[in-house]
Amino acid sequence: xxxxxxxxxxxxxxxxxxxxxxxxxxxxxxxxxxxxxxxxxx
Length: 42
Fold this sequence. Notes:
Blueprint: H1 2-6, H2 8-17
């Protein structure tokens, strides 16, 4: 992780260069059902 943070500009530019429109780092990590929190529930 420290190395990734040191190289964040290079990583960002590389990923943008191959077509990723958005580059972000999810520090919480992958968790089942996590995306559901963004859905509006009536």
